[in-house]
Amino acid sequence: MAFSMFLRAPACTSKLFSQQIMRIATQQAMKPVAAERMLSSVLPTQHTILKSNSPPILNAVRSFRTSPALLQEEKAHDHSKLWVIEKLTSAVLVPLIPICLILPNKMFDAALAILVTAHSFWGLEAIAVDYVRSSIFGPFIPKLAIALVYIISIATLGGLFYLISNDVGLSNAIKQLWSVKSKQVA
Amino acid sequence: MAFYCCARLSNKSVMGTLTKFNTVIRTAQYAQSAAVPKITFKQYEEPKVEPYDDKNARLQRPMSPHLTIYKPQLTSLLSVTHRAAGMLLSGYITALGVGALVLPHDVAHYVTMIEGLNLSPATIFLAKAMLAAPFGYHFANGMRHLYWDTAKGLTIKEVYSTGYAMLAGAVAITIFLAAL
Fold this sequence. Notes:
The structure holds 2 protein chains of 2 kinds.
Chain A lengths: L1 H6 L2 H4 L1 H12 L5 H9 L5 H5 L17 H5 L7 H23 L3 H26 L2 H4 L3 H26 L3 H9 L8
Helix pairs in contact in A: 7-8, 8-10
Chain B lengths: L1 H8 L4 H5 L2 H7 L4 H4 L16 H7 L15 H29 L4 H9 L5 H29 L6 H24 L1
Helix pairs in contact in B: 6-8, 8-9
């Protein structure tokens, strides 16, 4: 009873104190080592705790989100590493395209095919994600659009590899198609 | 301990009430404990959330004009053209790749076929210029994008000046490629 009266003291009923206690009580059940590390960094990680999927220590009192914005959010995915790779691909393509067209060979052709297909895939994926949204098209069509982007990119890459291995090669194909002779004026 | 509890319930300082022991008992504020409600727990239920667009569709709300009232500006125009050029280039490379897989003949056959059309040099130059335009534009604007990714040139003045410079570069690349 003494403890319950102590808890009613102003220090223990303050918002800050009760927030900290709620956070500690409702965090995920973890192995003891991980829990110790978690306890020491309890302060700013409210967002990740709210989004965690494993069961909390206490199920009787749980923190839950009520804001519609947070409720409607999808699972978080970190695009930052992929963004760097996308930009590196674009940067490599800037010198690679002229070099490949000037000095045609199988190695450069293969590198060009892979990088151009990847670059094209990321671009088409961005278009599909930006415009074919589930709020307009429903739940199925956006997934179909992404699937089509994958299929087109894989088919393109396969065709370019065929061109490199069984035909004149990528750069040579472009150069030959570009140098079609015009009608010679007699 | 009970004395401490009574004093805390009455929100009086504990030490101060030591001298007023009689008054604490007489004011009978300890009876507050009987008025504390019993705490019950309910099963947690997720609050039902309706997506924004579904709610607006249900209430048949009209949508505010957005794309129709957007002032045409160099920034948005160049950006959307960059995307359109990229789509065209994807079309080129997919045509080349998928064509290599499904078409019955090799590249040399189709080169001969185009030469058989006996097009004039001017027509060929124009056709090549139209084919090279998306490439020249996307290449030049792509370099502008990479420049932005180094966190440079992001003021509106620089966006406009690099934009015009990029257009000049795109035209130069297109004419150069068409002339090859």
